[in-house]
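User: hey, got a sec? need Secreted protein folded
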Amino acid sequence: MSRRAFALAALSTLTTASGAAAAPGRPRRRGATGMRGVWLATVSNRDWPSKPGLTAAQQRAELIAHLDRVAADRLNAVMFQVRPTADALWPSPYEPWSQYLTGTQGKNPGWDPLGTAVAEAHRRGLQLHAWFNPYRIANHADPTRLVASHPARIHPDWVVPYGGKLYYNPGLPEVRAFVQDAILDAVHKYPVDAVHFDDYFYPYPVAGQTFDDDAAYDAYGGDFPNRADWRRDNIDKLVLETAARIKRVRPTAQFGISPFGVWRNAATDPLGSDTRAGVQSYDDNFADTRKWVREGWIDYLVPQLYWNIGFAAADYAELVPWWAEQARGSRTELYLGEALYKAGDPAQPAAWQDPAELSRHLTFAREYAQVRGHVFFAAKELASDRIGAMARVVADHYREPAGPPRRVTGRSAGSGA
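Assistant: Yep! Here you go:
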């Protein structure tokens, strides 16, 4: 039986109206200690603040409203984007205040969003995972639009324009050190529960354009057979060094990464998943996400499985067991990234018009002991819940209050939660 056929068969065995029960013979896992997270994105004012230039009181009120909704839905963690574009949502000595707060990069908003978010999340029993984008500088290609004191203007040799945007060059050791310094400033100042990276390492491919890192490759790539291996090593170094530095500064803080959901297609690599995705993180972002899990380099991984059950190119029901197998016996916890934003979007396939699609994801994932929870994208849709998809998830799976996500370290292969 194929994995997809198994998925559908497993779903058909459910006996409760809510869809929350496990298949017969399966012990029911205590979901209240697993990850129930949501991303709160600030880039381009996606989730918060609703627009730049609000007063400090208005911004704070909107942030509190998001945290209240997270708590009301019995979730237990917020991935709060605090460095969206080489800027900061806290008073940083390394980078300017984010333009998404005041509308002007470098302008003090008159309060401390990260400090407030940590305190208010903890007051509600929520974990606060500080979410950093490592290399994105700007969603435009004009360095003169950056504040004059911006590190990218002081060090123009660090910058690569690509696809109409600006990026720091991951191949430069001084860039890697600077990015870590900027991140560790927040870790040092605030009792964050985790440092969180998203899927942007080397940028996603843009047709007809080349990411110009020739000079860096000439200077540092001599020990590698090709540029791709060198680029992957650059990202590996970022991951390993960041992990080590976090533990030195704040031993209780975790380090988690949320990559694109497909490592490699099986047609590219027999170790890959039975998918036909147009992007592969190993080849396109130069992120060897499978290795990070199997080697236990990070505390948790949240592959973005933003596809419905049965989607031909990247079937959720194919990817869950594949990722579960990679996590078997690893110290790295596996959580799954869920596309709440697709639910009820008329531009999405028919499956996403069904309010029960996301709930079915959680039901299916319960069959895999390595899956320790889910993270939903994103807070704006949590608040609006366009077709009641999140309400269905809460009713079916989150009826009990959530304790903090609890790591299960040192578990043997397949031992479960």
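Quick note: The CA atoms of residues 231 and 278 lie 20 Å apart. Let me know if you need anything else on Secreted protein.
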